[in-house]
Structure formats: C-alpha cells, structure tokens
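Hello forum,

I keep getting stuck at the same step: I have a sequence, I want structure tokens, and every attempt I make locally crashes halfway through. Rather than fight my setup again tonight, could one of you with a working pipeline run this one for me? It's a single chain of 468 residues.
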Amino acid sequence: MNVDNLLAIYDELIELMIFYNKQGEITYANACAKELLGYDRLIEKSIDDIFPGCFERNLDGIVCTAEPENDILSMMAYRQNKTCFKVDVKIIDNPGLAGSRILMGTDASRMESALKELASVKENSVNLDNIKNEFVANVTHELRTPVNGILGNTKELLSRELEPDDIKLLQLIEHGCDDMNALINNILDFSKLEAGKFQLEPREFKFKDMMEYVKSNHINKVHEKGLDFFMTIAPDIPDVLIGDELRIAQILNNLLSNATKFTTVGKVMLEAVATAKAGNKIELFFMVVDTGIGIDKKDQDKLFKSFSQVEASISRRFGGTGLGLNISKNLVELMGGHISVESEVGKGTMFTFSIWLEVPGQNAITQDYEVAKPLFQEKLGLTDADAASLSFGSGDNVEEIKKRLMKLNLCIDMENWEKAEMFSDAIKTLTDGAPHEIKTAVLKLKMAVAKENTQKSIEAIELLQSQL
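Reply #2:
Ran it on my machine without issues. Output:
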C-alpha cells in the first residue's frame, strides 16, 4: 500500500494521530488532530507546543516526561486559541522512519461527557422502568377492584332463583370477569418478570393433588367442546415435593387453556413423568398435547415472545394478550428447566417442559416406587412369576421391552393408536430406572405415539432398540 493510501486511511480515523521527529517537529497530523486542535496546518509546530509541560529536550532530542498508567498517558492538549482539553495518549516508534514517533490520542473530555450522558440515559431508563412498573401495578389494582365487584355481585345473583335466560347472561358475565382477572394477572406477572422482581415461593405440596386441581380447572371446558381429556401421572413421582405449586399450576393452566382453545375435534392430553434425580432433587417432565389447528414451523419461534401471536387473526378469533407463553417460559427457566414446542398445521401441537423440584426426606423416591410397584404389575398384566421384568437391565426386562416394541410397531402399522398408547405406556414403565438417554428415547416414542405420527414413532422405536 502506497503512502497516499495510508494517509487517506489515517484521515478517516476518529482519534488524533501526530507524527513527530527526533527534534519534536511535527511531520504529519491527520484530519481529526487538526479539527480537535483548531489548526489548518500542524507541520510547522512542535509537539511540545501542543502538549506543553509533557516533553523535555536533551542532547538526544525530545523525550516525553508524562507518567504512563497501563501504557496510557494522560496529557493536556492546547488548541490554537490557547484553550485546552484532556487527551489519553499512546506513543509508539514509527517503524517507517528511525527516530520518528507516532502519537495517538482520544479526547478524554468527550469520552467522560459521553460516559456521563450514558449514565444519565441509564438512570432515566431505570426511572422510566420504575414508573412503568408502578403504573402497571396501580392500573391492574384499579382494574381488579371493579372486576371483582362485578364478579361478586354476579355470583350473588346466580345463587338466587332466576329464569334460564337470566342465568345464561349472568354466567357469561361471570366468565368474562374470570377472563379479565386472568389477563390482569398475566400483565402483573409480566411486569414483575421484566423488572427482575419476580420471586418463586417454594413450599411442600402434594403433587397429585395439584395435578387433580389443574385437571378440574379444564375438564368441564374440554368436555363442553366435545373433546376427550386424558391425564397420566407416572407412579414413580413422589407424592410430596417442594416447589412453587401455584406457579407450576399456572404454567399447566396456560398450556391447557391454549390446547383447549385451539382444538375443536379430538383430544387434549396432560402427562407428567420423572426424568432425572440428583441428590434430593428430581427433574419432572410435562407434556401437553392437543389435536388442534397446529402451528407452522416458521411461526413457532414467535410463540414465547412478549405480546406475540402467530397471526393477528388468531388474537381476534381466540383472544388473549400473547403473554401467557412468555410468562410460562420465564417461570420454567426460573425453576431450572426448559420449554419447547412441536407442532404440525392441522394435526395438533405438543408443548413439553422440564422443571427441577426438591424431594423432602432421603428415601421418598424409592419408597414411592415400592408402593407403586404392585400397580405397575397390574397395569402391565404381569404375574408374580414374570414381575422380575420390572427390574430394568435384567434379561427378562430387556426381553419384555423388545416384545412390547414389536407389538407397538404392529399397532402403528395398523394405525391402531389407542393400543399403541397402551404399549408405549407399558414400555415407559418397564424402563423405569434406565439411564437418562434411554428414558429420553422412551419419551420421544411416547410423544410421537401421542401425536399419531407414524414416521417419528418408527424412528423412535428404532432408536430405542439400538440402545437396548
């Protein structure tokens, strides 16, 4: 690269650059240096004219006397009009000319000003966030008061003897108030999560009771739409766990509400299984499956974003703020887990998520399994003679799993999905206590069967067979 091209590049720099020789005479200054110092020409000047008090002359020439800090010199530069400003400087030898040096510097006063401005902007942003969060809290509180008043009066009227038409109208009002309270809660939770002020409240709770409560919240709506509802809880999940019961139920309620909302024909399924154990902690894996409208693959990344709907028409047709899944994602991650979705347009959707909870007591998991073991035998149709097949890894166990896989494969070929689900349940039970990768393969198999996906079911069977 020739000299002219290099000088053109130097003139584009946003920091000043000055070349000076052994005697201190400036031989080159870039455009930034001229602009900051207010000179049309700097070549006639000496470096100690620009930085007085920072250089001294001796028999060998001119030497910088400023004390460096982390290789940076803090010096005062004087403009042509005799005003000055602080510059952070670095001086290096000019490799192209012996005895010549290159001084590069940035306007520290501008940097300090920019940092102060940035701090001010950050402070204003924090203040605005606080104002926004306070506003949201106040508005949600103000909204909740009249809504609860309407709801209370509506329930009072419903307790009286009324005409059927009046009851129907009041029930619509009640339903509207419940929906409004759900929206208010979502907005408030979202605001807390955004502000980083959301905290989980873990305590002991009965897992199966919580699941039954979630089921009771949705089963009537599901049946009103003519859909089937199935809930499966793995028997090896301890009855008592430590976690935020309210928030786990909130995640499940969000997912089940969406499943019911977007499904007109078929079924809604909820399943919970234990997938890993570490010390006194257990990982639970949940599946919420529906046979609804499904979601195109290109739109699935929008699902967990704030205020996002796949299409505007979805919001108009089905309602909602688009906050439910974003809140669910944040809650799942707060519990050390991950949430994901698999869907196919016209065939349905499956949301899966995992969370970590604590198990009170030392032997809670083992004891729970031992209590449930007779139920396993009954469910699988095993006699005492072949009950040994429940012990994963034994010869009988592996042989029994292979037999069930063959029968499952046949059911899939015949598209008998009801029996296929039965065999996939049996296989999951037979692999209790298996390594994590086998349990994962079994879960993939169950997901594929639940979605009645022939290709993925066969792939999952082949994967599991390769691991036995």
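The first helix runs from residue 3 to 11. If your local run keeps crashing, start a new thread with the error log.
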